[in-house]
Amino acid sequence: MQNSYEIIDLKPRLSDFKKDVINGLLSENKWISPKFFYDRTGSELFEEITKLDEYYPTRAELEILKDKASEIGEVIGKDVSLTEFGSGNGKKSVLLAKCLTNPREVILVDISMDALKDALKRFGMECPNIPAKAVCADYTAIDVMSSIKMAGRKAIVFLGSTIGNMEPADQRSFIAGCRKILSDGETFTIGADLKKNPEVIERAYNDSKGITAMFNLNLIARINLEFGTNIPPDAFRHYAFYNSNEGRVEMHLISTRDQSYNVGGITIRFREGESIHTENSYKFSISELKAMLREAGFSETSVWKDSRDLYALITAVA
Ligand SMILES: C[S@@+](CC[C@H](N)C(=O)[O-])C[C@H]1O[C@@H](n2cnc3c(N)ncnc32)[C@H](O)[C@@H]1O
Prior knowledge:
This protein is of the alpha/beta class. The chain is built from 11 helices and 13 strands. The protein has 2 domains: 16-39 and 198-282, no CATH class; 53-196 and 284-317, Vaccinia Virus protein VP39 (Rossmann fold), CATH 3.40.50.150. A hairpin with a 2-residue loop joins β9 and β10 (266-270). α2 runs antiparallel to α10 (211-227). It starts with a strand and ends with a strand. S-adenosylmethionine (SAM) is lined by residues 35, 38, 86-88, 92, 110-112, 115, 138-140, 159-160, 162. S-adenosylmethionine binds at residues 35, 38, 86-88, 92, 110-112, 115, 138-140, 159-160, 162.
């Protein structure tokens, strides 16, 4: 028997795509926010990336969630309302919900309504007895997030190393925002990719099947779709590398020639070799993660790593 399911649309300001893209392309160092990767095609491509041999983060995080389920469940505690920010396909919420004792409800929060609908469907099939709701919202708008009603003791989770897609100042304010939502004794669980041999990291973002390249280039397809431009598929190429000074992988789209396009009534010029910076994915040490959590007002932390020490899951208590 399925329990209650509800979708709440807090109407994240998706229409900013056009404004944000034009602003980014008019900047001296061109950029597009990674949040625009996740339209229907982008979400499907990300799902494919997570299955690639070279892309270890998802596999490592799933290994931790499966192997350490009972320990994680014990630290998070019983009777909680579990909220995942950026829940994607919901697979990890399902695993977490299964390791909890008597969860009151699960709240999936994502900016993509398509992803939420798929995730709710998955949840309904795999955890039919746990009430679930989906909230379509931008989790960086913490004021909006704090308006979401969570029953019982709260447990917030932020997985998929999505924290690494934020800039360091935003990472800190996001974690502090989560702390504000929580009362003393409630938990925040974060999954993060660890610093390691750069070759392993670079292989993960330059897979041999070219799926990550398609994911990155999908931004050009999205620009074509939303602005009615006609940028050919070979106008840009995917480039990803580990910037060890910054401790992050950078993804770029590199212009393959001198070219210009009319984007929303504005002519945007690209020089050959010029980049559009599309994503940073920061990597962390355990001590950096613990320091961030401490600074935000969390005390005890429990740390779990996968068998190859590639990835960590940390639960911190508010
Ligand atoms: C890297 S995926 C991780 C998905 C899932 N947590 C996992 O670990 O497999 C990031 C997810 O966050 C969502 N997302 C990205 N930016 C967001 C934002 N500002 N507000 C809400 N969701 C966002 C995307 O739609 C996507 O589903």
